[in-house]
Specification:
With 441 residues, this protein is α/β, with parallel strands linked by helices. It has eleven helices and 18 strands. The protein has a ten-stranded mixed β-sheet, sandwiched between helices. Helix 4 packs parallel to helix 6. It is globular, with a radius of gyration of 21 Å.
Length: 441
Amino acid sequence: MILKLHFSMCLIVLFSIGTLAQEKPNVIIILADDQGNADAGFQRSPATLSTPSIDKLAASGVIFSQAYASAYVCAPTRAGLLTGRYQQRFGFYTANDSRVGLPLSETTLADLLQKEGYRTGIFGKWHLGIEESYHPLKRGFMDFYGFLGHGGHDYYNFSCPDEKNYECIQRNFKTVNESGYLTDILAKEACSFIKGNAEKKKPFFLYLPFNAVHAPLQAPEEDIKRFNTGNRNRDIQLAMIYRMDLAIGEVIKTLKEEGIYENTLIFYFSDNGGAKATSANNLPLRDYKQSVYEGGLRVPFVVSWPAQLQPSVCKEPIISLDIMPTICAILDIKLPTNKIFDGKNILPAIDGKLKQPLHEALFWDGAENRWAVRSGQWKLVFDKGAKLELYDLQNDISESRNLAAQNPDKTNELKLKYEKWRAEMKTPMGDFKKKNRKKNK
């Protein structure tokens, strides 16, 4: 089947996915860690910094101006990304839940793509379980290079203490000794994976979850010297972004050298908003990582597929959960019928012919007495002991004017939506751990 979608902003041509491996698009997900909303050149005009590789990717693809991570911290977003489901459905609310792991009952995107004949590889930060049964090679991936957890990793020190084996750099199941800068090494490994599969004419799924630009603040001194903001931490952060941008550039260069760039579907985004502690820039959004305000949730997001997508900007609100269902729709892969999938295929949003919003509502909850729900232009926020706050994002992207008192009906409507959604979710993993600790005393 060949499907052509014509519209004013761009043209999509979805070709028939036949039986020949070379007809299938390669799939790459590039995930930045804690990158600020404004810390990519294409996000601001005029740009506040230069990220030429990321900017070229954006210029060749679709920029989503209202894109969200499914959580305000790392691990839960990653759990939702690889399952296409609100991670709360299986009790994964916090970064600490990564110590337990992505439940084995969940099907991952890698599981599905491996069954379709894709070589699946992950290079970077896993953060979805540290025990062997939760290892990437047990969750649909065929190649792994990186570390299992937790949030950050030293960019230069690759020592491997026995009591913290999750800090070891591994190739598949074996610990390896390395030297260099970790962002560079991950790019090198990813490029080797690309070359190997291109030579075999094997379609591949490359998941490249950088730990950049997560703390600790570390970058080559020559890169730091490129910047002079008057804030040493900000200069290091910019140098880390610069180095990650170079790494992404190497991936794109390798795709082009192998002649497969045009038929590679690339998703690029950040796992949550930028962190205040690392001097990230989320402007004009309010707040930072670990917040349910826009600065903790809204992220840079680009989809590039040169052979099929023309450059455009899509203003439809989307969420990282949408990536898995979109890939499956493109490849005509049926999602399992025994689970609820919250992500949506974003191609109709790019088409611009949606008869109703892609998502009736979007939800966030980290089981820390802070949550948010967005429906249309309205967003309701509850941040710990504070009162309910209602914002009109269409006219107040910085969430500076609380309109709850002026709009009690809308406030109550969104509160009820959130309560209904939350009632469908599982008890947080942390609650189970607390109960088990009490039983064992």
